[in-house]
Specification:
The structure holds 3 protein chains of 3 kinds.
Chain A lengths: L8 E10 L2 E11 L4 E5 L6 H8 L7 E6 L2 E2 L5 H7 L1 E4 L11 H12 L14 H13 L15 H14 L4 E5 L7 H15 L3 E5 L3 H7 L2 E6 L2 E6 L1 H6 L1 H8 L11
Parallel strand pairs in A: 3-8, 3-9, 6-7, 7-8
Antiparallel strand pairs in A: 1-2, 1-4, 4-5, 9-10
Helix pairs in contact in A: 3-4, 3-5, 4-5
Chain B lengths: L6 H23 L2 H26 L8 H16 L5 H23 L4 H20 L10 E2 L15 H24 L1 H11 L1 H6 L4 H27 L1 E2 L6 H14 L6 H19 L4 H14 L3 H6 L6
Antiparallel strand pairs in B: 1-2
Helix pairs in contact in B: 1-2, 1-6, 1-11, 2-6, 2-9, 2-10, 2-11, 3-4, 3-9, 4-9, 6-7, 7-9, 10-11
Chain C lengths: L1 H31 L6 H19 L2 H22 L9 H23 L15 E5 L2 E4 H23 L1 H11 L1 H6 L4 H27 L5 H16 L4 H27 L4 H26 L11
Antiparallel strand pairs in C: 1-2
Helix pairs in contact in C: 1-5, 1-6, 1-8, 1-9, 1-10, 2-3, 2-4, 2-8, 2-9, 3-8, 5-6, 9-10, 9-11, 10-11
Chain lengths: 259, 315, 305
Amino acid sequence: MTDAIDPLLSISGLSKRFGGVVASDNVTLQVKPGELHAIIGPNGAGKTTLITQLMGEIRPDGGKVLFEGEDITALPTWQRGQKGLARSFQITSLFLDFTALDNVALAVQAQAGHSFHFWRNARKQAELREPARAALARVGLAGREDIVVSNMSHGEHRQIEIAMALAMKPRMLLLDEPMAGMGPEESAKLVKTLRELKKELTILLIEHDMEAVFALADRISVLVYGRVIASGAPEDIRNNAEVKKAYLGDGKKTAVAHG
Amino acid sequence: MTQALTLRNLVAFGTLAVLALVPLYSHATGNFFMMTLFTRIVILAMAAVSLNLIMGFGGMVSFGHAAYLGIGGYVVGILAHEGVGSGFVQWPLALVVSALFALVIGALSLRTRGVYFIMITLAFAQMIYYVGVSLDRYGADDGLTIYKRSDFAGLLNLSNRTVFYYVCVALLFATIYLVWRLVNSRFGMVIQGARSNERRMRAIGVPTYRYRLTCFVIAGTICGLAGVLLANQADFVSPAMMHWTRSGDLIVMAVLGGMGSVIGPVIGAVALLVLEEALSGITEYWQIILGPMLLGIVLYARGGIEGLLQGGRHD
Amino acid sequence: MLLFVEQFLNGLQFGLLLFLLAAGLTLVFGIMDLVNLAHGSLYMLGAYFAATFTTLTGHFIGGVVLALMATLVVGMAVEVIAMRRLYGRDHLDHVLGTFGLILFFNELVRLVWGPAGMNLTLPAWLNTSVELLPGVHYSMYRLSIIIVALAVAAVLYLVVMRTRIGMLVRAGASNREMIGALGINIKLLFTFVFGAGAALAGLAGLMQAAILTAQIGMGENILILAFVVIIIGGIGSIRGAFIASIFVGLVDTVGRAFLPDILKLFLSSSAAATAAPAISSMLIYLVMAVVLIVRPEGLFPAASK
């Protein structure tokens, strides 16, 4: 056996077209266990399409996706959740008429085997409620558990999204622009949360917020028109000429928070 | 189980109390028409509760639910016609047959969503109606008379009006309790979540189809039992029991009472059937009033009676 | 053989009537996202109006034209009074609201025309038979239904495919928000489309009236068949509705006619006689079930959503 660490997620040659539009163009990248790998790129680069394919909601035209060495390219969405892959939605997609706690408890329940239990009141089961409460606390929503989601703010929706992903006890988290639409205070809070989560989870983060990306990422891949044009350590990416031209812009300073 | 003393709860539990007390009223006043009317109400309330399980909680709007009334009823009718009068055979068989039909229809229909689902359930119910009409041996269009109610060998005498009434009420209350437990269980959470946001349910790792199908079968089976009761109550079965307008009536009961709770449809059944009795006393053409009234409820009082009494879901 | 030709033509005729009904339904659903159960009521009204006006005027064609106009007016009135408030709502709301309209119209018809049905008597020139091939006679009336329905289908095709209005209709069927964004007067377009659908339903109803008589509740039975057609053909697709209607019409008519004989090949005579009616009624729905298993969106779905 080699000592090279096998990647947790390995994407090779992933391709997807929608009519004349190439959404994913031979995308190849790896995410190592324990790292926070960020994907950046201009709008329309195919970032969300990539996540959708990774979760099995869309079938790629070509290429493979391996998770923990297992080929999951053809696996239906609900089974990927069972395998340890969890995502948050860019456009939040929650159970709006339920409370925050109900939402996260459902995610816990989904991981606890089948749900053909017809009798006991699910809202009174500690084995579902406690982990849900804990996940909500981790994202900073302690005390807001019993509020109906449709009455909560957009930022709180995003926090619930992440709490739900956490409740699935994933081995890897796919986060699709979690900071989108957040003010500076909320973003800072989320960065702090992610920094904590980094210690126990592998994360694939798609983001536009460059401050957050450079604060958190161990490695960065840059996606432009569906193609990975560069992949490597944050410093290398920041200094990469092609990347600068395509995305960061020439002469633009990027503020970096260390920590 | 602590419940707030709200107007809605008063009306809901008051309705149940009234239903339980009707026979006392009838015996006291000699007005047995009341008991006959309310037996029908109780039975249809049970059917409406079963429909609301899939419709209000599951988001599966079935326009063919009355088919199960017919299926349950016809099993009893056919067995009685062929000389099998024992309730111990008729009733379980009716449940099994209803469940099987629900399984097949559900398995096909649940492959679709929204308006397709509505049309398909309607189509299948119509198909079953036509099959009923073509059963010459069992009365076809004219229907089949049942000369003796289900025989329970001395345990229960269903020919006694009062006994029969209380059997129906007991089964209604049991249904309400069962459905209440169901919607609050883990199974119920999946069903309600799938109604709220199916995509999300799948993303968290739940294969929704099998749960919805199970729910559909449970609802169909309960409705089949209601059909058994209906056949006994009327001493008669006919394809008219399964006509698509009957399915429409059940939907109206659920919406009128309130789709957000387990008891809502019971309130709706009482309201609708009492209203029909009252209106038909006024004019022969009472549906001219009922039709636009229904449209009005849809446009202005969507939460039904419960909605008018309060806001939001309880249970 | 002659029987087969006759049944085949009957099936074609029935299928074309179904198409007229399904076309209106699928257009309204495709463009306005409205599930209209009361479509059958307009079918029924067309029949009753025709029976009434032809008797009143003593003139067949005149009566028919009046009936179509009356149905068109009623259709547009229903759109303005009731349907407008339902747009954008849950489909269950549509189902309930239009179910209420069905109850209303059925009862209204009973009030105005009485519970017994009405007959639509044909003029002498339609009440004959035509020799299509040597020895093969067919009812002139049924033949004219086929011709008229095909003509209407052709006009519909031309309008939808070749005119500006048709373009709006097609665009609307696949992307509703866009036509609003293009600044077209949506309200007018919707009223027009709904009215057109009503007129088609009324035409189907009055054509059928001469064969089966005008009756209360006639709309709902055929409406459900129209739903089956739409499920098989695909929602929003006129082409799908056309192909599926012909198919359904043929399967139903020819199936009913020949099923007893086919069954006799496998079963005893009495078993065949008992089973045939039941299976005939189920035939169409079995086809629908197969389509659902293989292609749940229908054979030619139009909508991209």
